[in-house]
Amino acid sequence: MPIRFKALSYxxxxxxxxxxxxxxxxxxxxxxxxxxAIIGETGSGKSTLVEHLNALLLxxxxxLEVLDYNIVAGQKQxxxxxxxxxxxxxxxxxxxxxxxxxxxxxxxxxxxxxxLSQQDALKQAAAALKLVKIDESLFNVSPLELSGGQKRRxxxxxxxxxxxxxxxxxxxxxxxxxxxAREIIDLFVSLNRQLSKTIIIVSHDNEMVYNYCDExxxxxxxxxxxxxxxxxLFDDKKKLKEFDMLExxxxxxxxxxxxxxxxxxxxxxxxxxxxREIAGQVKR
Length: 284
Known about the structure:
Strand order of the largest sheet: 6-7-8-3-9-10
CATH architecture of the largest domain: 3-Layer(aba) Sandwich
Oligomer: single chain
Number of strands: 10
Strand content: 15-25%
Low-confidence stretches: none
Number of helices: 11
Shape: globular
Helix content: 25-40%
Radius of gyration: 21 Å
Number of domains: 2
Largest sheet: 6 strands, mixed
Order of helices and strands: EEEHEEHEHHHEHEHEEHHHH
CATH topology of the largest domain: Rossmann fold
Distance between the termini: 50 Å
């Protein structure tokens, strides 16, 4: 079943003089098994929205369905632990949350907290660390000895080790160099394509959203102003102007080539495909 927000609102400091409605009657269905981006200007409600997915925040009004869980405003929730196992949330700069004395103990903490034996938790932790390309020689060192990129990978491994059905990423590439950012995103694409994990990414990086995300949700002032295929959004100059968004570089490049007379198919969305189609026309 999809993730379904029904007239969901969230008010910070409710019933206080400085109350702020961060989400305003959001109706939204997010499909399972795909990669969905949540984008919008700073303060649009992106992080507030995704923090509802594993009940870090509870709705002030309305309701939310996630997998087999139903969260309704004003009702006491009794299933928070299984929900948080099924929905893994990777915070921005999640490496700052590492706290155990060794890398593998830190990654095993989540699975043990959800009921696995120490032996099974360590086994899952080791598998998750290998998946994020942390060398076995680092398993028993302190997380504090790692580089920033390695810490980010360890924090992500801690989520993967819990085997969630949905993985939510809040600015997962923030602060990483281009190579590290690409490797992190490639990892989550692999989890989606090979293991059918539902991936939800909060991001300001339009290039990454365009290249990797199947659908995109645009928030503005706590409301959903667009939800649909990512390609359709970035092909629509009127919408980009309305939402004050820049075209990804590859879209601008593609449009310039078309304006100069080249004929490009709808599949020409990457440099490799564009180069191949142009080469054929130049030869002729």
